[in-house]
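4-diphosphocytidyl-2-C-methyl-D-erythritol kinase
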Amino acid sequence: MMVLPAPAKLNLFLYITGRRDDGYHNLQTLFQFVDHGDSLSFATAPDGELTLSPPLPGVSPEQNLIIKAARLLQSKTGCTKGAHITLIKRLPMGGGLGGGSSDAATTLVALNRLWQLGLSTEQLARLGLTLGADVPVFIRGQAAFAEGVGDIFTPAHPPEPWYLVLHPDIEVATAAIFNDPDLPRNSPVLSLQQRLLLPWENDCEALVKKRHPEVAKLLGWLLEYAPSRMTGTGACIFASFDRREAAEEALAKAPEGVRGFVAKGCNTSPLFSALQQMNAASSSSNTAT
Ligand SMILES: C[C@](O)(CO)[C@H](O)COP(=O)(O)OP(=O)(O)OC[C@H]1O[C@@H](n2ccc(N)nc2=O)[C@H](O)[C@@H]1O
Ligand SMILES: Nc1ncnc2c1ncn2[C@@H]1O[C@H](COP(=O)(O)OP(=O)(O)OP(=O)(O)O)[C@@H](O)[C@H]1O
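Structure:
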């Protein structure tokens, strides 16, 4: 059995620089991971069967990105093995934390190993992109400045502060934000160096605040404590702190009913770190035998 994390991502900034003919948007965004997320376990099933437990409320197994990722891998490689997959879901859905994409990325990486398919990171990232724009960054596992639809990467090394992430109790549909005529789509294309020096902002934030007053209200509250922004197309917002205790103190004072968590920013994804540990353990056991 293989147990692996599916961490959340934050978009430390997010600019929309244009709309392509296929309707997708070109972005400039800075991705970083946090050490908090879902957890998945995988056991090989011999007969090609794929199961997921427990099921996600409101998402049928066929729609679940975990099963979709596993099926995609089976169909692209002709692999006849299956898997029993268990999911511990901690990340809110439709939160802008990339939970579904991260689950899909962890599934692709895990099953590639478990089924001994030998696909490269590049091949897995390309497959992952067909499941969602955020999947490739989770497969690569390194903080990055991303362009295109979020699939052209430049490695980046932003500071790794503590974050307080808060979730207004709503789900924002990514497609609805990208399809809204009021979304600004004309940020200039700048270099990473230029972007790092300018204030970090999110082009979706004003629109999401307008459509969802809950987000505007919570962001107003959080800004009293620290510089704060929205991640992705929302609904989650985050603030950075130098000290974990300061983030936890702010969480303890959060308005009633607001859920959230404190986590450390990571330029290396917890998935990547877990895989490195697995590699180290297997090479030391090979040496021992
Ligand atoms: C906003 C971000 O989270 C930033 O990291 C991502 O770009 C969104 O990634 P995602 O949730 O994996 O999105 P997908 O499932 O691929 O796309 C959902 C919908 O959002 C719109 N979409 C998404 C990404 C993008 N670059 N341009 C778009 O216009 C499309 O209408 C698409 O049908
Ligand atoms: N394993 C999964 N986990 C979460 N959502 C899933 C999963 N599989 C399918 N979905 C569907 O995907 C939708 C988006 O979920 P997700 O948690 O990825 O949103 P998000 O955090 O806003 O992502 P992003 O930041 O990539 O836009 C959900 O509303 C759900 O219907």
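The CA atoms of residues 169 and 207 lie 17 Å apart.
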